[in-house]
């Protein structure tokens, strides 16, 4: 007997917002026919045979999104206590509604983020700035929430960097808005209350996907 001879008794697939489930059922006669034949159904090998593997191989759907938003920052937010959410659940849900297979989308894979900081004051002022990207869902140990930290200076009025987050977040995660946020600290200048000190343009690449996606480093 080969795997082509195996007939499934029943095959089921079920999906909701919490999970996706597949199941295949063999009857006793089929199982007894397989045991000891060419098709090895020992516990160690059953999950490796092509028939079983293909049954549970779900069709992967991926939709790539590139977005950009510019934030105008008030001068009172220079000491690291303010933050900008890079990922917005309301926007993601709206994007999913435009997808034909929207019921199957379970994850958003965070790919690359480009941050461009532009000063709202003249060139030549020594203004060190520190930028942090963090996953604020991580509360312990807090230092592990930092994804990337860079230092720069707005003496020449602009500062740009790119990071690759490379992790997936479930669409139904209640804290998805905290999964990628921008913090900053700035010194060397003080403006009158109500003044705008810089703009932060955030350009994102992320993937709406049916399967939990993890990519090789430096790839999306």
From TrEMBL:
Per its UniProt entry, which superkingdom is the organism in? Eukaryota
Q: Does the keyword Coiled coil apply?
A: yes
Q: Does the keyword Iron apply?
A: no
InterPro entries assigned to the protein according to its UniProt record, in alphabetical order:
Caulimoviridae_Movement, Viral_movement
Keywords recorded for this protein, A-Z = Coiled coil
Q: Write the protein's name.
A: Movement protein
Species per Swiss-Prot/TrEMBL record: Solanum verrucosum
């Amino acid at each position: 007997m080969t795997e082509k001879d195996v007939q499934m008794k029943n095959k089921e697939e079920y999906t909701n917002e919490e999970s996706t489930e597949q199941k295949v059922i063999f009857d006793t006669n089929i199982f007894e026919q397989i045991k000891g034949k060419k098709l090895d159904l020992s516990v160690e090998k059953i999950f490796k045979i092509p028939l079983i593997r293909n049954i549970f191989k779900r069709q992967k759907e991926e939709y790539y999104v590139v977005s950009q938003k510019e934030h105008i920052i008030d001068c009172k937010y220079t000491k690291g206590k303010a933050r900008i959410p890079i990922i917005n659940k309301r926007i993601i849900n709206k994007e999913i509604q435009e997808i034909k297979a929207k019921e199957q989308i379970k994850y958003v894979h965070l790919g690359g983020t480009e941050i461009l900081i532009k000063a709202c004051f003249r060139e030549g002022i020594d203004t060190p700035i520190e930028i942090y990207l963090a996953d604020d869902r991580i509360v312990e140990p807090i230092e592990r929430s930092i994804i990337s930290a860079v230092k720069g200076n707005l003496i020449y009025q602009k500062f740009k960097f790119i990071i690759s987050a490379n992790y997936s977040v479930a669409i139904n995660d209640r804290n998805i808005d905290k999964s990628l946020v921008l913090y900053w600290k700035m010194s060397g200048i003080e403006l009158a209350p109500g003044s705008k000190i810089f703009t932060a343009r955030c350009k994102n690449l992320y993937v709406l996907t049916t399967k939990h996606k993890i990519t090789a480093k430096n790839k999306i």
